[in-house]
């Protein structure tokens, strides 16, 4: 339980465990000052921590990557994109960082792209392998044809020179949709002409591979045909193709024009929330709704789960019944929203438990200062559990500043040029204390993305012109009790139910003896109702432990059966001591096996 509290940073559980830790250590003869010193060493892990060797490695990598990013920015970001090409969310986060740094990320192109991402002047060219459905065989065929015959002149010329057995129709459709053949025409034209161009290309391939000498060395002019005159695909459709095949919006983003404005309101992006240290933190996110589904709770109430997409990826937003009743209609596909809520981790996935929402147009009209006050009022409405600016140093950034996991950035930076919400300081635009008489926010600096560039100072946002009276708590904000009532399966208890029961039993159980009497018997009992398979595996594990520790104490297994328990003594004895009890606990955990000592003749 203490290990669980340390791993999950459960401060309240750490305090509960202190009494048991001190009592049982004292029973084992440990000096009080030693007990206090050891437990004091655990306490910093309530916030965040790891061992010194781990910290040294992270620090070294953070230093190296920071140097490379500052001095060789384009090359560094190209390497980051190549390293994460199979992870759509990390590629999206790195592309968003490139945009922030002013680095152009150019789309895939059959005339310039190679397998991986490459540096192209002071820009980055997308690699063809990052396009879904495009394999290395097709890419090698395209690069070989380009090397041997120069640039392609048309879609038909392309189809006649590459190996269409490797670059099949699905591959070519994907390349067209992401703009890799835009030199030949727009996407709708190329898709309409693709079948005819491939037919010409397949015919010429048959001629070239025929036992007879092929009639044509190059594409005859009469086989070329103009592209059909049809309307270009809509911007929405083109962006949909990019999202489907690249995993992100590359040419533009539905939020692209609003990036700077939204940054004044939000305190986290979807890429930040993978960090488990943000679990339970209340953040504000901005994004476009890309999907909504409704769910019926066990109380027969309706709630919703919406997918919110920002510049770094997508996130699941949970809208509980009370909020759904008042604001459910706001979560509609295609609407840009600001959403406040608590970060919730379920295994590897993070979601946002929403407690307030604003349509972007309304929020922009009211301004960041007013929205920040409403966010703060909503936090007070949740019971005053303010967790921003806690000084816990839980910033979600990486040592590389590009989402590459190289260092956890727990000094308060999130690797994307902005402060994380729990990094010890609230952004100026979201600080309700900003106003007359408040200390102005310190300016910050950022490094120019161009190699050889200097440092550009960026002025902090000016304080608000006027203060606003505190608002009443938002009516849509449910209290923690409401959350537990409305959707208990989403509200994680301090401990899982089974662990809570084990902890309660362990706290009430007497401390195990440290040594066996001269004529002792170790009785091993199993929890009634445990599966037979589990008992068999546990018995085998126990036999292995006992074999490693031969001694004089007899061992009797008490195996559950229909009439009660069946005693069975094993051959040989065991050396009983506190280490044996600890070893059994490590191997089998708590709850399945119970050990009791008795005098000889009383198993």
Structural features, described:
- The protein has 603 residues and is an alpha+beta fold.
- It contains 19 helices and 14 strands.
- The strands form four sheets. Strands 4-5-6-8-7 form a five-stranded mixed beta barrel, surrounded by four helices. Strands 13-12-11-14 form a four-stranded mixed beta sheet, with helices on one face.
- A hairpin with a 2-residue loop joins β5 and β6.
- The longest helix is centred in the first third of the chain and has 23 residues.
- The two termini are 31 Å apart.
- About 19% of the residues have low confidence.
Search tags:
five-stranded mixed barrel; four-stranded mixed beta sheet; alpha+beta; 603 residues
Overall SS class:
alpha+beta
How much helicity do the residues have? 25-40%
Question: What Rg, in angstroms, do the CA atoms define?
Answer: 32 Å
Beta-strand residue percentage: 15-25%
What's the pLDDT, averaged over the residues?
Answer: 74
Task: Detail the topology: elements first, then pairings.
Elements: H1 2-7, H2 11-27, H3 32-42, H4 52-71, H5 73-83, H6 88-101, E1 104-106, E2 118-120, E3 123-125, H7 136-149, H8 155-161, H9 169-177, H10 187-209, H11 235-246, H12 259-263, E4 282-296, E5 302-310, E6 313-319, H13 321-327, E7 336-346, E8 349-359, H14 360-366, H15 368-381, E9 444-447, E10 455-458, H16 480-486, H17 497-508, E11 520-526, H18 532-548, E12 550-561, E13 564-574, H19 578-588, E14 593-599
Parallel strand pairs: 1-3, 6-8, 11-12
Antiparallel strand pairs: 2-3, 4-5, 4-7, 5-6, 7-8, 9-10, 11-14, 12-13
């Amino acid at each position: 339980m203490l290990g669980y509290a340390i791993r999950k940073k459960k401060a309240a559980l750490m305090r509960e465990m202190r009494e048991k830790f001190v009592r049982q250590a004292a029973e084992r003869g440990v000096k009080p000052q030693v007990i206090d010193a050891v437990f004091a060493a655990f306490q910093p892990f309530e916030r965040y921590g790891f061992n010194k060797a781990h910290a040294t490695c992270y620090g070294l990598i953070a230093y190296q990557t920071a140097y490379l990013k500052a001095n060789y920015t384009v090359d560094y970001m190209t390497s980051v994109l190549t390293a994460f090409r199979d992870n759509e969310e990390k590629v999206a986060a790195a592309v968003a960082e490139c945009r922030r740094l002013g680095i152009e990320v150019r789309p895939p192109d059959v005339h310039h792209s190679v397998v991986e991402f490459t540096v192209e002047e002071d820009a980055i060219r997308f690699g063809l392998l990052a396009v879904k459905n495009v394999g290395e065989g097709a890419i090698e065929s395209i690069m070989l044809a380009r090397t041997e015959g120069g640039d392609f002149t048309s879609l038909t010329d392309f189809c006649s020179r590459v190996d269409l057995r490797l670059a099949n129709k699905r591959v070519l459709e994907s390349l067209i949709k992401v703009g890799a053949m835009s030199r030949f025409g727009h996407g709708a034209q190329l898709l309409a002409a693709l079948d005819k161009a491939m037919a010409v290309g397949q015919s010429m391939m048959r001629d070239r591979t025929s036992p007879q000498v092929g009639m044509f060395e190059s594409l005859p002019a009469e086989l070329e045909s103009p592209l059909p005159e049809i309307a270009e695909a809509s911007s929405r459709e083109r962006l949909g193709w990019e999202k489907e095949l690249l995993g992100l919006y590359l040419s533009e983003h539905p939020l692209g024009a609003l990036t700077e404005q939204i940054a004044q309101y939000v305190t986290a992006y979807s890429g930040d929330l993978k960090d488990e240290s943000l679990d339970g933190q209340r953040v504000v996110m901005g994004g476009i709704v890309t999907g909504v589904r409704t769910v019926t709770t066990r109380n027969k109430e309706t709630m919703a789960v919406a997918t919110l997409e920002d510049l770094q990826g997508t996130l699941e937003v949970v809208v509980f019944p009370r909020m759904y009743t008042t604001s459910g209609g706001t979560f509609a596909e295609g609407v840009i929203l600001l959403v406040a809520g608590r970060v919730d981790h379920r295994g590897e996935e993070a979601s946002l438990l929403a407690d307030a929402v604003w349509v972007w147009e309304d929020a922009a009209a009211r301004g960041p200062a007013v929205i920040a006050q409403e966010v703060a009022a909503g936090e007070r409405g949740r019971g005053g559990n303010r967790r921003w600016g806690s000084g816990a140093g839980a910033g979600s950034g990486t040592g590389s500043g590009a989402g590459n996991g190289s260092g956890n950035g727990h000094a308060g930076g999130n690797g994307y040029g902005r402060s994380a919400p729990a990094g010890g300081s609230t952004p100026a635009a979201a600080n309700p204390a900003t106003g007359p008489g408040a200390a102005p926010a310190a300016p910050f600096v950022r490094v120019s993305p161009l190699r050889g560039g200097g440092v550009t100072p960026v002025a902090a946002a000016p304080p608000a012109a006027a203060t606003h009276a505190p608002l009443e708590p938002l009516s849509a904000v449910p209290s923690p009790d409401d959350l537990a009532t409305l959707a208990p399966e989403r509200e994680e208890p301090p401990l899982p139910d089974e662990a809570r029961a084990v902890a309660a039993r362990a706290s009430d159980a007497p401390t195990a003896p440290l040594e066996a009497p001269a004529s002792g018997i170790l009785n091993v009992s199993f929890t009634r109702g445990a599966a037979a398979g589990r008992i068999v595996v546990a018995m085998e594990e126990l036999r292995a432990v006992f074999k490693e520790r031969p001694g004089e104490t007899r061992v009797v297994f008490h195996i559950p059966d229909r009439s009660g328990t069946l005693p069975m003594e094993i051959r040989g004895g065991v050396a009983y001591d506190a280490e044996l009890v600890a070893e059994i606990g490590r191997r089998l955990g708590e709850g399945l096996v119970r050990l009791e000592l008795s005098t000889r003749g009383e198993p």
